[in-house]
Design a protein that fits this description.
single chain, alpha/beta, 7-stranded mixed β-sheet, 12 helices
Length: 375
């Protein structure tokens, strides 16, 4: 089959690789109909992780079940499904507690597993024609037959639940004011989820004009951090700061001049959120970053204003999304017309176009807010 294979920094290729096969009775094989490029993929693409050449990318996947293992009960051939990016067993201590992003079974020795991602287990990604899905009864979210809402449902694999997870971590409630740093796909989903949860005002901070324009289209207030301190702009408009803050940027954050400062968003959020407010951090932070600007940054050690954080009595929640905690409910909002996360999708490209699409998305080109690939 064809698949997107990582070959080194800023180099991917569409290659012929071995077809997936049933390896355990609880597996299914899915024919991929839609897969998406994630901002998290860019960290590997740019060489900013310890990913080795040969990884098949792709953790945002959906499709139609082609083959079913003998131990699968609830999923059958022909079912249309979307797969959470985190692979989970469904029966370990963390899965039973709903913390499926930190499954203790799927990736022995590590809490958490995913398709096609460095350090997240041996599983190939779904930027390919077919995908093996372990623990299929638990991991497959069934969808209505046909092709309706295809792009909406594809967002259920990662960015819609991750954006919603950020609002859960931050504790967004009706009437709250919210500041989201980062207007990439996850940041836009965080802003959108804040609106769905009844926030009275949502600010979105970024520097890319077309991203800020999309944020305004969903009712957020766009803040360009190159035109002045983002915390000052927001505090001035909120009489002392917002109730909740969300980091949808992560460790490759930059200052207006373009220099990387990995902790700048966390420190800006500490200044943006009012005393006793709360933060939700879903922007990616890693323990190893070969391209970090300092020796500490290369090992995930960041200097944040802990004194200021403590002084203000702030709270912080962090970590990747437990997709299974949200995807069924979010699917039903889509089916009933209450949510349309596909507003972020700006490009639909054949799988063969992946190298060009990655390069353009990485450059944040106009029209490349979110790219879906069609195998």
């Amino acid at each position: 089959m064809k698949a997107v294979v990582y070959r080194g920094p800023n180099e991917i290729q569409v290659e012929q690789v071995e077809d997936p096969r049933i390896e355990a009775p609880t597996d299914v094989i899915v024919r991929v109909t839609t897969t998406a490029i994630c901002g998290s993929d860019l960290h590997m693409y740019e060489g900013r992780t310890v990913a080795e050449p040969g990884i098949v990318f792709g953790h945002e996947n959906m499709g139609v079940v082609q083959e079913v293992g003998s131990g699968v009960v609830s999923v059958k051939q022909g079912d249309r499904v979307v797969l959470p990016f985190n692979i989970a067993c469904g029966f370990c201590r963390n899965c039973l507690a709903g913390k499926t992003g930190f499954c203790l079974t799927a990736n022995p020795g590590f809490a958490g597993s995913a398709y096609g991602y460095v350090g997240m287990g041996p599983y190939k990604g779904g930027q390919a024609e077919y995908l093996r899905v372990p623990f299929a009864d638990f991991n497959c979210l069934q969808l209505p037959q046909g092709d309706e809402h295809e792009d909406d449902f594809a967002m259920l694999a990662d960015i819609f639940p991750t954006g919603y997870h950020s609002t859960e971590l931050a504790g967004v409630s009706p009437g709250d004011t919210v500041a989201v740093y980062g207007a990439g796909p996850v940041g836009l989903m965080a802003a959108y989820s804040s609106v769905l949860r009844g926030a009275s005002q949502v600010f979105v901070v970024d520097r890319v004009p077309n991203r800020l324009r999309v944020a305004e289209e969903i009712g957020a207030v766009a803040i360009d951090f190159t035109k002045g301190s983002a915390p000052e702009q927001i505090v001035d408009r909120t009489n002392g700061g917002v109730d909740r803050g969300i980091d949808a940027v992560g460790y490759q954050a930059t200052v207006p001049e373009g220099e990387e400062q990995p902790a700048v968003v966390l420190n800006d959020l500490i200044e943006t959120v009012r005393p006793t407010g709360s933060l939700g951090v879903v922007g990616l932070y890693l323990p190893k970053d070969p391209g970090g600007p300092t020796e500490d940054a290369k090992h995930g050690r960041l200097l944040i204003g802990m004194g200021r954080f403590f002084e203000k009595g702030l709270r912080m929640g962090t970590g990747q999304a437990n997709v299974k905690s949200y995807n069924r409910q979010l699917r039903d909002l889509i089916i009933e017309g209450r949510a349309e996360p596909s507003f972020v999708v700006s490009q639909r490209r054949p799988l063969d176009d992946a190298p060009d699409a990655y390069a353009r998305f990485d450059r944040r080109e106009e029209g490349y807010t979110k790219v879906v690939l069609k195998p």
